C-alpha cells in the first residue's frame, strides 16, 4: 500500500473535497487505500477514483466523529498496510484528524498541499499553500509516512483528473476491509454531538453559485436583493470581511482567508473591491463575474467578466430579468 | 479561571503579497505586523470569559523581540500578563512551537489554552493539537461558539450544514475561528496599561522538523483582464447570456 | 483601469494626480477655457489612495503667512460654494504662559486678516467643549469660522464639472511611465494607457511628486512625512449628534495634537512624534498596501506618549473603556523645506508644472493659482512665496529637504518667532570673508543658504558709545533674534562708516545683441542708458503688480548685470529666462561675484586711501559704476545705497573678496570703520530712509503709485505691466504706503513693547482698516530708527487715512498702541533731502 486517504462522506458518497484528496493520492503512482468511517463504503465511486482497497470503520467501533480516535485508527492502518503517505482533504475534519495523527505518531504533517512527489525512501517533495493559498511553499517532507492534507480549492476532483474513458477499475476490483480497531477511552474523550445547524440551507463551501456582497452593498439593508438573486440562481450569498466586521451579516457567510473558502462554478462578486483576504477565499471559483462601480478595483484583475456599474441598479435589473425568464407573462409586464 | 492565549506576529498584507529575493520570507518592507484574526478573537474570548467567571488572561507569543508589539496589542485588549518565547529569527515548526508552549503551560499552570485555528502565515493547522497531546489535555479545533464554566467547556462549530458540539473537561486546549465573537478595539486606557506592563521572557531551543521549507513563491495568476460586459443596467442582457453559457441558469 | 490605447493621442495639458489639487486644477483650467485636458491617476476614483483620501479634512483659517492665509481663504470659499463645508468652530488651547502669549499674537494676526477670533478663559472653553478638563489649560483662542470639508466629494464635483463641459478625459488606474522632454520642453507623457503628446505636464501628485518630476529630469523639493492619527469610538456623547461634527475642533497645540469629532468617533492627530521620513521611492504600491499607499502601518510606540496627554485633556471622553482605537495610521503628508507649497513651472523644464505640497486647506486655492499661471495670468492669490522656481539647487537636494522637513515637522504647532532661524543643513553657502566675520563674533542668519552676519558681537564695545540711544527692548519676545548691537552698528555707520558683507546678492548677467531689449521689456525704468549707469527699477507683472525690485548695471552695449536679493534670486532668474527674446542670454554669476558694501560719511576717505582711481563726487557720481583698482584687485564699484549714506557696492571676484575686505578694513579702522550686519542693511538703514522691500511692501497686490514710487515720466518703450501701470497712474491710489511712528510703547501692564511686523493697523477706536479694494492695513515692515529714536512701521493705509499727523492704533499681542502717520508716501524721515547719498 502506498497511500491511505481519509475519505469523508457526503450523503453516502465521497465528499467533493475528498475526491480532490484522492487526486493527489493517485498521483503517487501506487495503490490507494480509502479509509471510510461509516457502515459502508461507496465502493463503486471509490473504484471509479482508482482506489484499490477500502477500509471501513464500523460505527460499533467509533460512533460518530471523534478526531483523536479517527487518528488512532489511521495510525493502526499505517502499521498494518505499510503506507508511506496518508492524505486527507483540507477540511476542518481532515486537518484535525491528520494533526492528531501527527501528534500520536510523532510524524510531521504538511497542510494544504497541492502537489506531492516521492523523492526517495522516506522523502517527498511537496508544494503546499501558505497564506490560504496566496503563497506556495516548496518543501521537503522527510517522514516514513507523509501526512498530507490537500488544498480543496487548488486541486481538481479525481474523476475529472482521469483520462477520458481511462483506467478506472470496475467495482469488482476493490477490496473492502471491515476494520474494528481497539480504542482507548482517552481517544474517545472528545467526540462530536451532531445536530442540524441553526442556519441550515445550502453550504457556502459547496454551493454551485455564490452571490458575493461587499462594502459596496452599503449596509445591512442591501442584502435582500442579493439573497433574491442567489435564490433565483440556485446559490447562496457570501460576503467580504468588512461586511461581517461591520456586523451587517453573520460571520458564517464570510468568504475569505478567515472565513469560508468557496469553489463554486460561478462567483458573482457585487460591490467587492477584492482585498487579498477575500481573494484567498474565492480563488477556487471556476468563473468570477464582478459588478463594481470602479473599473480600477483589484477584483477586476481576477474576474473573467465584469459589469461596470452600481450594484444597486444592476442587481435589481438582473433579478427582474431572471424572473421574467421564469414567468414570461410577468416579465412582459415588468420592465428591466 | 486562568487562561493562556497564544498569538502570532504576522505581516499585515494588502492587495498583494511578495516574497524576499531569496525566497525565504514574506517581503515585509511595506507591511506592518498584526495578530492573526483568529487569534484576535481568541484574546477577546478569553477576556470575555474572565469578565464573566473571574480569573486571569495571559498572552503568549513565540517570535522575535519585535513580537512584543503584538503582546502589547493583546494586553491593550484586556490581557493582564505577557510571555515572550523569544526566537532567534528562525521559523519554528509546529512541533517545536507546541513543545515550547507546553513547557510554559506546565510551569505556570492554566485551566484553558486558547489558540487561533491556524496561523494566517504558515497555515499548519496543528499547533493546538500537538500542544494538547504534549499536555495530555483534550482539544477541540475550529470553534466558533464556546460556553465555559468552572468545570468544563462546550465548544461548537459548523460542519457541512450540521452543528458539532464538543464537551471538554478542563484543563483543555481550544482553537477558535474568526466569527466566535466581534473583537473589541483597544481603549486608550487599555493601551496605556499595555505600555506599562512587564513582559516575561524565555528563549526556547529551535529544533529541526521533518517538514522543511525550501522556498516560498507567489502562485502564477493568469494575467488576464476581465471582459467588460457593459455599463450599468445596459449590461444585464449580456450578463444573462454569460450566465447561461456558464450553465447556471 | 485602462488598457494601452485608451489614452487620447494629444492633450493641451496632462494633469497627473486626481487628489484635491489635480481635480481643482482641471476644474479651473476648464473655466479658463482650456480644452482637451487629460487627468491621469494610477489609482481608482474617487479615492486614488493619496493623502487626500486619509486627510482629517479640517481647516483653521489662521496663518501668519499672508499667502497661506489667502490660499486657505480662497479654498474655503470654493469648498463652501461646492456645498461641502461644515462650520464647526475651532479652539487652540494653551497649557503654558508662553502659549497664552502666542494665542494673543494669533488673535491679533487674525484681526489683521479679518478672521473672527477671540481669547477665551478656561471656563469659556469648557462651555464650548464640555468634555475638556478646564484645569489643564490656561485658556484658549476661539476661531468660530473653522470647519471641516469633504475633500473627496469636492474633488469629484470639480472633476465632473470639467468632464461635463466636454473638456476633460479622465484616465483612472493609469500609471505614468515617463515624461519625455525635447529641447528643454515637455513633449509627451507616457502612460500605461498610451503616450499622450502635450506641451504641459502638471504634477499634482502629492507625496509622489518628486518621483514624477524626476521622470522629466527635474528635482522637486518635497518629501513625504508621516503624520499619525487615530480614531477612537464609539463616543457615547457623540451618539446622538447630527452630521459629522457638532463640537469645535480642539488643537492642543502645546502637545502638538488635535482632537476632532468625526461622526461617532474622535480623531486624535499628532505632530509630536519623531519626524518619520518616507522616501518617495519607498511608498508602497496600491497592491502592496494594506489600506492605501499613503496610509502606512501605525507605529504605536511613536504615538503612545501622546495618549496620556490626550487623556489628560479629555479624561472622561477618551478614557471610556468602551471606546476603542478603531483606526490608526501613519498617514503620509507632503512637506517642503520652507513649509510652503510648490506652485508653478519648474525651472528645469518648460511646460513642466507643479501643484504639489498643498494640503486640504489650500488645495482648491493652489489649483486655481496654478491654472491661472498656466494660462499666463497673474494669479488671484499672490503665490510668489510658493514659486516652484524659488529653491536653489542645494535646497532641492534630498539631504536638505529631509533635514528641513524634520526640523519643521515639530514646529507645526510650535511657537515660532517671526525671525526664528533654521538649525539644520548649515552652513551651505559661505562668503569669502566668513573667517573674518567669525573672528568678529558675527551672529549669522541664513538667507537662501547664505550665512549672513546679522550683527557682530565684537561691536558690543560700540554700544557703550551710544548708551541711551539703543532702543533696547525689555520684553524677551521682542528682543529674541535681535540685539541692540544692531542699533549701535547703525549709529556708528551714520557717524563714520561700515563694511557690509553682501555676498548673498544674486548676480544675473543678461547679454547678447538683444540684451537691451530684454532688460527694457522687464523693467519699468529706462535701461537705455550709458554704459556705467546703475538703474534702480521695479519689474511688474501684466497686471502692474510687483514681480521684482532690484538694480541693473549697464556694463556695455550688450551687457547688463542685475543685482537682486538672494531670497528671490532663483525666482527672478526664472522670470528673466521666461521673457528672454532671441539673441539675449542669461547667466547666473552669483557664485562668481561677492559684494562688499562700504557706506557712511567716511566711506570716500576710506576708499580713496586704497585706490588711485578718482572716487570724488565729480569723478564718480551717484548712480554710476566703474572698475577701480583696490589693493591689486580690479573691483567693480557701484555708487548706490540702500542705507541712505555715501558709499559703494564693491563687486569683487569671489576668490579675491577676502583680499579686498582686508585692504578696506585695514585702511578704514583708523577712520572709525566698523562691520555692520544685515540688521542695519535690511531694516534700520532702509526704514529711516523709507526704502521699500520686495515681498514686504512691494507685492503683487499693490502698485507703483500706491507704493509712492511713481516717476514723473513713463518710458516710451514697452515693458511688462506698462498698460496696467498707465491705468494705475491715471487713478487716484486706493491705498497709500505710509510710515508710522509709535506714540507709546507701554502695554496694558506697563512693559514697553516693540512690534515685530504683520500687526493690524486700526482706527483710533480699534476698527480694522480696509481700503476700497478690501485690502487690510497691516504692518509690512518694522524696526528701530536709531538716528530718530523711533520705532518705525510701514503700512498701506486707505487713502482717506493716509494723512500725515493723524493718529491711528496698532494691535500687538492683544494690546492697542497709538501710532501717528509720520509720512504718507515715500519721503524719508532721515535726511529727507538725500544730502548724504549725494555728497
Indicate the topology.
The complex is a heterotrimer of chains A (336), B (249) and C (839).
Chain A: E1 3-6, E2 9-10, E3 13-14, H1 16-27, E4 32-37, H2 43-48, E5 53-57, H3 67-81, E6 85-89, H4 92-105, E7 109-118, E8 123-130, E9 135-142, E10 146-150, H5 158-161, E11 175-179, E12 192-196, E13 209-213, H6 223-232, E14 236-239, H7 241-245, E15 266-270, H8 276-282, E16 287-292, E17 305-308, H9 311-326, H10 328-333
Parallel strand pairs in A: 1-4, 1-6, 4-5, 5-11, 6-10, 7-10, 13-14, 13-15, 15-16, 16-17
Antiparallel strand pairs in A: 2-3, 7-8, 8-9
Helix pairs in contact in A: 3-4, 6-9
Chain B: E1 2-7, E2 9-11, E3 33-35, H1 37-53, E4 56-63, H2 68-76, E5 81-86, H3 94-108, E6 112-116, H4 127-135, E7 139-143, E8 145-148, E9 152-159, E10 162-169, E11 172-176, H5 188-196, E12 199-202, E13 211-217, E14 227-231, H6 236-245
Parallel strand pairs in B: 1-4, 1-6, 4-5, 5-12, 6-11, 7-11
Antiparallel strand pairs in B: 2-3, 8-9, 9-10
Helix pairs in contact in B: 2-5, 3-4
Chain C: E1 13-16, H1 20-31, E2 37-40, E3 58-59, H2 66-82, E4 85-87, E5 90-94, H3 97-113, E6 118-120, H4 122-128, E7 139-143, E8 147-149, H5 151-164, E9 168-171, E10 176-182, E11 185-191, E12 194-197, E13 201-203, H6 209-215, E14 223-233, E15 249-252, E16 257-262, E17 265-270, E18 295-296, H7 300-313, H8 315-318, E19 324-335, E20 342-345, E21 352-356, H9 363-374, H10 398-409, H11 434-439, E22 442-447, E23 450-456, H12 460-465, H13 476-479, H14 484-495, E24 497-501, E25 506-511, H15 515-522, E26 534-540, E27 546-556, E28 559-564, H16 569-577, E29 585-588, E30 593-599, H17 603-608, E31 625-630, E32 633-638, E33 647-653, H18 657-668, E34 673-675, H19 678-688, H20 722-730, E35 735-742, E36 761-762, E37 779-785, E38 790-798, E39 807-812, E40 815-824
Parallel strand pairs in C: 1-2, 1-13, 2-9, 5-15, 13-21, 24-34
Antiparallel strand pairs in C: 3-8, 4-8, 5-7, 6-7, 10-11, 11-12, 14-17, 14-19, 15-16, 16-17, 18-19, 20-21, 22-23, 24-30, 25-28, 25-29, 26-27, 27-28, 30-33, 31-32, 32-33, 35-38, 35-40, 36-39, 37-38, 39-40
Q: What do you see in this structure?
A:
The complex is a heterotrimer of chains A (336), B (249) and C (839). Chain A has 336 residues and is of the alpha/beta class. Chain A folds into two domains: 3-188, HUPs (Rossmann fold, 3-Layer(aba) Sandwich), CATH 3.40.50; 209-333, 3-Layer(aba) Sandwich (Rossmann fold). Chain A has ten helices and 17 strands. In chain A, the strands form three sheets. Chain A has a nine-stranded mixed beta sheet, with helices on both faces. In chain A, strands 14-13-15-16-17 form a five-stranded parallel beta sheet. In chain A, strands 2-3 form a two-stranded antiparallel ribbon. In chain A, α3 crosses α4 and α6 (223-232) packs parallel to α9. The radius of gyration of chain A is 22 Å and the shape is elongated. Chain B has a single domain, classed as HUPs (Rossmann fold), CATH 3.40.50.620. Chain B is built from six helices and 14 strands. Chain B has helices at 37-53, 68-76, 94-108, 127-135, 188-196, 236-245; strands at residues 2-7, 9-11, 33-35, 56-63, 81-86, 112-116, 139-143, 145-148, 152-159, 162-169, 172-176, 199-202, 211-217, 227-231. In chain B, the strands form three sheets. A seven-stranded parallel beta sheet of chain B has the order 7-11-6-1-4-5-12, with helices on both faces. A three-stranded antiparallel beta sheet of chain B has the order 8-9-10, with no helix packed on it. A two-stranded antiparallel ribbon of chain B has the order 2-3. In chain B, α2 (68-76) packs across α5. In chain C, α1 (20-31) runs parallel beside α5, α1 (20-31) packs across α9 and α14 crosses α19. In chain C, the strands form eight sheets. Chain C has a nine-stranded mixed beta sheet, with helices on both faces. Chain C has a six-stranded mixed beta sheet with strand order 9-2-1-13-21-20, with helices on both faces. In chain C, strands 31-32-33-30-24-34 form a six-stranded mixed beta sheet. The mean pLDDT of chain C is 96. Chain C is an alpha+beta fold and 839 residues long. Chains in contact: A-B, A-C, B-C. Chain A binds chain C through residues 294-298, 300-301, and chain C through 1, 43-45, 172-173, 286-287.
Amino acid at each position: 500500500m502506498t497511500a491511505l486517504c481519509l475519505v469523508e462522506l457526503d450523503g453516502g458518497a465521497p465528499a467533493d473535497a475528498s475526491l480532490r484528496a484522492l487526486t493527489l493520492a493517485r498521483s503517487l503512482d501506487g495503490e490507494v487505500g480509502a479509509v471510510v468511517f461509516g457502515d459502508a463504503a461507496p465502493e463503486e465511486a471509490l473504484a471509479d477514483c482508482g482506489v484499490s482497497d477500502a477500509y471501513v470503520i464500523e460505527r460499533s467501533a467509533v460512533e460518530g466523529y471523534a478526531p483523536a480516535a479517527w487518528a488512532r485508527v489511521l495510525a493502526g492502518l499505517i502499521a498494518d498496510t505499510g503506507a508511506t503517505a496518508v492524505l486527507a482533504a483540507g477540511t476542518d475534519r481532515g486537518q484535525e484528524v491528520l494533526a492528531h495523527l501527527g501528534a500520536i505518531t510523532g510524524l510531521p504533517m504538511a497542510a494544504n498541499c497541492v502537489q506531492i512527489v516521492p523523492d526517495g525512501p522516506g522523502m517527498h517533495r511537496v508544494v503546499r499553500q501558505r497564506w490560504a493559498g496566496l503563497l506556495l511553499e516548496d518543501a521537503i517532507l522527510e517522514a516514513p509516512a507523509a501526512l498530507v492534507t490537500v488544498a480543496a480549492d487548488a486541486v481538481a476532483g479525481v474523476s475529472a483528473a482521469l483520462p477520458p474513458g481511462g483506467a478506472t477499475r470496475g467495482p469488482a476490483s476493490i477490496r473492502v476491509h471491515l476494520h474494528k480497531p481497539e480504542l482507548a477511552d482517552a481517544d474517545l474523550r472528545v467526540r462530536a454531538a451532531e445536530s442540524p445547524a441553526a442556519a441550515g440551507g445550502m453550504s457556502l463551501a459547496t454551493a454551485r453559485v455564490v452571490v458575493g456582497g461587499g462594502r459596496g452593498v452599503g449596509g445591512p439593508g442591501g442584502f435582500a436583493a442579493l439573497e433574491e438573486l442567489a435564490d433565483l440562481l440556485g446559490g447562496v450569498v457570501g460576503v467580504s470581511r468588512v461586511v461581517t466586521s461591520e456586523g451587517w451579516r453573520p460571520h458564517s457567510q464570510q468568504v475569505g482567508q478567515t472565513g469560508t473558502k468557496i469553489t463554486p462554478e460561478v462567483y458573482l462578486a457585487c460591490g467587492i473591491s477584492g482585498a487579498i483576504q477575500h481573494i484567498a477565499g474565492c480563488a477556487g471559483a471556476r468563473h468570477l463575474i464582478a459588478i463594481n462601480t470602479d473599473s480600477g478595483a483589484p477584483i477586476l484583475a481576477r474576474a473573467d467578466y465584469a459589469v461596470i456599474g452600481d450594484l444597486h441598479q444592476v442587481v435589481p435589473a438582473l433579478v427582474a430579468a431572471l424572473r421574467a425568464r421564469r414567468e414570461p407573462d410577468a416579465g412582459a409586464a415588468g420592465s428591466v | 479561571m486562568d487562561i493562556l492565549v497564544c498569538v502570532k506576529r504576522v505581516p499585515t498584507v494588502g492587495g498583494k503579497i511578495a516574497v524576499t529575493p531569496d525566497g525565504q520570507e514574506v517581503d515585509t518592507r511595506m507591511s506592518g505586523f498584526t495578530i492573526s484574526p483568529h487569534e484576535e478573537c481568541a484574546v477577546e474570548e478569553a477576556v470575555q470569559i474572565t469578565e464573566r467567571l473571574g480569573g486571569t488572561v495571559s498572552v503568549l507569543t513565540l517570535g522575535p523581540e519585535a513580537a512584543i508589539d503584538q503582546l502589547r496589542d493583546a494586553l491593550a485588549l484586556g490581557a493582564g500578563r505577557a510571555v515572550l518565547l523569544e526566537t532567534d529569527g528562525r521559523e519554528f515548526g509546529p512541533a517545536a512551537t507546541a513543545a515550547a508552549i507546553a513547557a510554559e503551560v506546565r510551569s505556570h499552570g492554566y485551566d484553558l489554552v486558547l489558540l487561533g485555528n491556524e496561523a494566517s502565515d504558515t497555515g499548519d493547522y496543528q499547533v493546538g493539537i500537538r500542544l494538547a497531546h504534549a499536555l495530555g489535555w483534550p482539544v477541540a479545533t475550529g470553534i466558533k461558539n464556546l460556553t465555559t464554566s468552572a468545570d468544563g467547556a462546550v465548544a461548537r462549530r459548523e460542519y457541512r450544514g450540521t452543528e458539532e458540539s464538543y464537551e471538554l473537561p478542563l484543563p483543555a486546549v481550544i482553537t477558535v475561528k474568526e466569527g466566535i465573537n466581534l473583537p473589541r478595539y483597544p481603549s486608550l486606557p487599555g493601551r496605556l496599561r499595555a505600555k506599562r506592563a512587564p513582559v516575561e521572557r524565555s528563549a526556547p531551543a529551535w529544533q529541526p522538523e521533518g517538514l522543511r521549507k525550501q522556498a516560498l513563491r507567489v502562485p502564477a495568476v493568469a494575467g488576464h483582464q476581465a471582459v467588460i460586459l457593459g455599463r450599468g443596467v445596459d449590461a444585464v442582457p449580456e450578463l444573462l447570456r454569460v450566465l447561461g453559457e456558464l450553465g447556471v441558469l | 483601469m485602462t488598457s494601452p490605447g485608451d489614452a487620447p493621442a494629444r492633450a493641451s495639458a496632462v494633469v497627473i494626480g486626481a487628489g484635491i489639487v489635480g481635480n481643482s486644477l482641471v476644474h479651473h483650467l476648464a473655466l479658463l477655457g482650456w480644452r482637451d485636458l487629460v487627468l491621469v491617476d494610477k489609482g481608482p476614483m474617487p479615492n486614488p489612495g493619496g493623502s487626500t483620501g486619509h486627510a482629517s479634512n479640517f481647516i483653521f483659517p489662521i496663518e501668519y503667512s499672508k499667502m497661506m492665509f489667502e490660499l486657505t481663504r480662497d479654498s474655503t470659499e470654493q469648498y463652501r460654494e461646492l456645498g461641502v463645508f461644515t462650520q464647526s468652530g475651532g479652539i487652540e488651547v494653551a497649557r503654558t504662559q508662553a502659549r497664552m502669549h502666542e494665542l494673543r499674537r494669533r488673535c491679533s494676526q487674525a484681526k489683521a486678516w479679518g478672521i473672527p477670533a477671540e481669547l477665551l478663559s478656561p471656563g469659556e472653553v469648557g462651555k464650548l467643549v464640555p468634555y475638556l478638563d478646564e484645569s489643564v489649560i490656561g485658556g484658549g483662542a476661539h476661531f468660530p469660522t473653522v470647519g471641516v470639508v469633504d475633500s473627496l466629494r469636492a474633488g469629484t464635483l470639480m472633476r465632473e464639472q470639467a468632464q461635463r463641459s466636454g473638456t476633460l478625459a479622465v484616465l483612472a488606474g493609469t500609471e505614468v511611465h515617463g515624461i519625455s522632454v525635447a529641447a528643454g520642453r515637455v513633449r509627451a507623457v507616457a502612460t500605461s494607457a498610451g503616450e499622450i503628446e502635450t506641451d504641459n505636464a502638471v504634477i499634482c501628485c502629492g507625496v509622489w511628486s518628486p518621483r514624477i518630476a524626476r521622470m522629466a529630469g527635474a528635482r522637486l523639493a518635497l518629501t513625504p512625512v508621516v503624520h499619525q492619527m487615530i480614531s477612537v469610538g464609539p463616543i457615547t456623547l457623540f451618539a446622538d449628534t447630527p452630521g459629522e461634527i457638532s463640537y469645535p475642533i480642539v488643537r492642543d497645540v502645546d502637545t502638538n495634537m488635535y482632537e476632532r469629532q468625526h461622526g461617532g468617533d474622535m480623531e486624535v492627530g499628532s505632530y509630536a512624534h519623531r519626524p518619520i521620513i518616507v522616501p518617495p521611492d519607498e511608498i508602497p504600491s496600491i497592491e502592496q498596501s494594506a489600506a492605501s499607499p499613503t496610509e502606512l502601518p501605525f507605529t504605536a510606540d511613536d504615538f503612545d506618549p501622546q495618549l496620556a496627554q490626550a487623556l489628560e485633556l479629555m479624561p472622561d471622553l477618551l478614557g471610556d473603556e468602551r471606546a476603542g482605537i478603531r483606526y490608526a495610521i501613519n498617514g503620509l503628508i507632503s512637506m517642503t523645506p520652507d513649509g510652503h507649497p510648490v506652485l508653478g513651472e519648474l525651472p528645469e523644464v518648460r511646460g513642466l508644472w507643479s501643484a504639489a505640497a498643498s494640503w486640504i486647506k489650500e488645495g482648491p486655492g493652489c489649483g486655481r493659482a496654478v491654472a491661472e499661471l498656466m494660462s499666463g495670468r497673474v494669479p488671484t492669490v499672490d503665490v510668489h512665496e510658493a514659486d516652484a522656481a524659488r529653491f536653489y539647487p542645494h535646497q532641492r537636494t534630498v539631504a536638505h529637504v529631509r533635514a528641513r522637513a524634520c526640523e519643521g515637522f515639530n514646529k507645526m504647532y510650535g511657537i515660532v518667532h517671526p525671525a526664528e532661524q533654521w538649525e539644520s543643513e548649515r552652513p551651505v553657502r559661505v562668503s569669502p570673508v566668513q573667517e573674518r566675520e567669525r573672528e568678529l563674533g558675527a551672529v549669522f542668519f541664513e538667507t537662501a543658504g547664505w550665512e549672513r552676519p546679522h550683527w557682530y558681537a565684537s561691536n558690543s564695545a560700540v554700544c557703550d558709545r551710544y548708551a541711551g540711544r539703543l532702543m533696547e527692548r525689555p520684553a524677551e519676545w521682542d528682543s529674541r533674534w535681535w540685539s541692540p548691537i544692531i542699533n549701535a552698528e547703525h549709529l556708528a555707520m551714520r557717524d563714520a562708516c561700515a563694511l557690509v558683507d553682501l555676498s548673498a546678492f544674486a548676480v544675473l548677467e543678461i547679454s547678447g545683441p538683444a540684451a537691451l531689449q530684454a532688460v527694457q521689456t522687464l523693467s519699468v525704468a529706462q535701461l537705455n542708458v550709458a554704459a556705467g549707469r546703475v538703474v534702480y527699477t521695479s519689474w511688474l507683472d501684466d497686471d502692474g503688480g510687483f514681480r521684482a525690485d532690484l538694480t541693473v548695471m549697464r556694463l556695455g552695449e550688450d551687457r547688463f548685470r542685475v543685482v537682486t536679493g538672494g531670497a528671490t534670486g532663483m525666482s527672478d532668474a526664472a522670470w528673466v529666462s521666461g521673457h528672454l527674446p532671441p539673441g539675449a542670454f542669461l547667466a547666473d554669476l552669483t557664485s562668481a561675484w561677492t559684494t562688499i558694501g562700504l557706506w557712511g560719511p567716511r566711506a570716500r576717505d576710506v576708499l580713496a586711501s586704497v585706490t588711485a582711481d578718482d572716487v570724488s563726487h565729480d569723478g564718480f557720481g551717484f548712480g554710476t559704476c566703474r572698475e577701480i583698482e583696490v589693493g591689486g584687485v580690479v573691483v567693480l564699484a557701484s555708487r548706490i545705497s540702500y542705507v541712505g549714506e555715501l558709499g559703494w557696492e564693491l563687486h569683487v571676484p569671489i576668490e579675491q573678496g577676502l583680499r579686498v575686505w582686508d585692504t578696506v578694513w585695514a585702511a578704514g579702522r583708523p577712520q572709525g570703520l566698523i562691520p555692520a550686519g544685515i540688521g542695519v542693511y535690511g531694516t534700520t538703514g532702509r526704514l529711516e530712509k523709507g526704502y521699500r522691500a520686495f515681498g514686504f511692501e512691494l507685492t503683487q497686490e499693490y502698485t507703483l503709485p500706491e507704493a509712492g514710487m511713481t516717476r514723473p515720466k513713463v518710458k516710451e518703450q514697452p515693458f511688462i505691466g506698462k498698460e496696467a501701470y498707465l491705468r494705475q497712474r491715471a487713478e487716484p491710489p486706493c491705498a497709500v504706503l505710509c510710515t508710522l511712528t509709535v506714540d507709546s510703547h507701554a502695554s496694558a501692564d506697563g512693559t514697553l513693547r516693540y512690534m515685530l511686523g504683520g500687526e493690524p493697523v486700526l482706527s483710533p477706536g480699534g476698527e480694522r482698516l480696509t481700503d476700497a479694494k478690501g485690502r487690510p492695513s497691516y504692518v509690512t515692515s518694522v524696526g528701530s530708527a536709531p538716528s530718530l529714536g523711533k520705532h518705525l512701521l510701514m503700512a498701506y493705509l486707505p487713502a482717506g487715512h493716509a494723512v500725515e499727523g493723524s493718529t491711528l492704533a496698532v494691535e500687538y499681542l492683544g494690546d492697542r498702541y497709538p501710532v501717528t502717520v509720520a509720512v504718507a508716501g515715500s519721503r524719508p524721515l532721515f535726511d529727507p533731502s538725500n544730502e548724504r547719498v549725494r555728497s
